[in-house]
Amino acid sequence: MKTTFNTQTIEINPANDGYVATLENKNLFIKIIRVDLQNGKMDVLIDNKRVIAHVSSDGAKRWVTINGETILLTKTSGAKQGVRHDHAGGLTAPMPGQVRSVTVSEGDVVKKGQTLLTMEAMKMEIKIQALMDGKVKSVFVSQGDTVEREQILIEMED
Amino acid sequence: MFNKILIANRGEIAIRIMRACKELGIKTVAVYSDADKNSQHVQFADEAFYLGDSAPKESYLNIDKLINAATQTGADAIHPGYGFLSENASFASAVDSVHVTFIGPSSDSIRAMGDKAESKILMKKAGVPTVPGFEGLENEKDFIKAAKEIGYPVLVKAAAGGGGKGMRVVNEESELSEAIQAAKREALNSFGDERLLIEKYIADGHHIEIQVFGDKHGNLIHLFERECSVQRRHQKIIEESPSPLLTPEIRNRMGEAAVRAAKAVNYFNAGTIEFIFDPKTSEYYFLEMNTRLQVEHPVTELVTGIDLAQWQIRIASGEKFPFKQNDFMQRGHAIECRIYAEDPSNGFLPSTGKLLQFIEPHGPGIRVDSGFAKGNEVTHFYDPLLAKLIVYAENRESAIQKMQNALKDFIVHGVVTNIDYMQAVLKHEDFAKAKISTRWVEKNFNDWKPAEPELESLISASLADLIFVNQKSKIENETDPFNPWKKINNFRN
Predict the structure, then answer these.
(1) How does DSSP classify residue B60?
(2) B413 and A69 in contact by Cβ < 8 A?
(3) What does the alpha-carbon distance between residue B23 and residue B475 come to, in Å, rounded to a whole number?
């Protein structure tokens, strides 16, 4: 089974009484000691090194904790590449919340770092600032709007 | 003693108070909003009362609804917890007016200390040292003038404030106007009051606070300090007691000042006097008084042995506090880490979602005050505090080690937490040496990033896809007693 997480591809296949993982042209032998489904816990030997990992899945996301350190991986193989709005000049809501004020309108010329919009979420004020000097192409929200995470708020052009 | 207490709060603190109630043989009433109908505090209570919409204004901040909940359920006392209405004098009065006991100080004490400007004047009179600054300024011109006189950096903060909301550090005049506007908006939003005060910002100050406790019969003592200098965005994330900075003499002096401060407003119940402590001069200045139980009260409980939540209830019912100042001492060392659903590598933005995994650490000297469990939803409506992890050991060094190990065993999936970030903080040599000002985190950990995925995490993730799915189908096929196919298989065999 071949999977890509973030940018790294890993292949795992059953072998003997365990599995063989292939990544970065390396083969590692995996032996399973025990699996605790309830706690999402795996106790395994990877090339004879004992690793205890807690893993949870949510869609394409994988949460992995090993030795107290938690890593968030995103399964990218097979998945459609999402449009990165911030690269396309769009500014998105970092989290769900409410638009408190919009300080620019379409056609405004703005400087990098200028506050374009303020949001409120979890009683905190969050400023949405221009990532570059440019012109406001469109404003998609207005004061009082409730917005979802990743929702495009403002689109910019050079 | 009370028969039934309504807890006008949610999350870990609601559960903490309910535990105290249960120990005292008192029935508990939880209140909840739409977002909280499956929350832990609702399940933990003897009964639960629905308040309304998830927005705090429609639920946990709605005085009428809470009073109605208390009368409907026949509660004879209300515990406000911290945050929400805990320091709202009108709420305390409203509770009194329906002949229900407010578990906390009198509304007069709350009012006197709630106004940061007025309380400062009061403290000056009572001989408690205060930070140089100005109160009651109206327009921007006055602020500019005041800031100049005090000298930058200055701090503008909500007169009615607390908890870092409506507070801004201003380094130069050009930043002042925007800071005032933002602080005003936050202040209005959080406290319904946009008045601000301005004062000297003590750059390398430590935040050291003194717990006080008193009854309705005039007995009032202090329960030593908590050092709370590890802060992000003016909000504490790690607290400990004792403070490694204080000598017994300074500790005594601060304790006495705190008692004077509390007595100046005829205080009873649990309260905290916050000081900013200048390590260069060992001078300390009154910042504010929190007229409620603090988030970090467990560290005091662990080093002194008192159960603050229980005693809050007992003295609210009129009991005398039987202890004297000399009955208490600090023993050993306690540290608390606040486990927040937030992303430290992205401006500490709160992280929301369903908790896919939530495993709390256990062991000698480990206490977890938690408000969540696996499967619960973390929403954007409320403070992102998931749990408090508190450890206790014979000295600071052992307590730090214990905390590091306990954090390793705290597993949260589904939302980003500050656990790994706090490991980095605890590991830093400045922390070991206790050289931590309130700006230390900001200065040292601004560029903190979570670890890059290693081979082992990639393998584990990929392996999980394979074996958890297999295991699941195996369980479903073989051990499900209600699986109709199983019978057929058996029959065939």
Answers:
(1) T
(2) no
(3) 40
Active-site option among B111, B232, B251, B292? B292
Q: Tokens at residue B229, please?
A: 């200098």
pTM over 0.90, yes/no: no
Residues of chain B numbered 78-117 and touching chain A (CB < 8 Å) = none
Shortest CA distance from A77: residue in chain B: B462
- In angstroms, the CA B440 to CA B204 distance is 8
Return the residue in A5, A30, A49, A69 with the most chain B beta carbons within 10 A, the one to mutate for interface testing: A69
ipTM of the complex: 0.84
Orientation of helix B107-114 relative to helix B116-125, angle to 10°: 100
Amino acid at B242: P
Residues B234 and B278 sit within 8 Å (Cβ to Cβ): no
Active site residue B292: yes
Pairwise CA distance, residues B424 & B82, whole Å:
28
Tokens representing residue A129 in the block: 């600032």
pLDDT tens, residue by residue, B13-53: 999 999 999 999 999 999 999 999 999 999 999 999 999 99
Return d(Cα B62, Cα B176) in angstroms, integer.
34
The distance of B21 to chain A (nearest Cα, Å) reads: 29
State the Cα–Cα distance between residues B32 and B42, nearest whole angstrom. 7
Q: What is the average pLDDT across B161-172?
A: 82
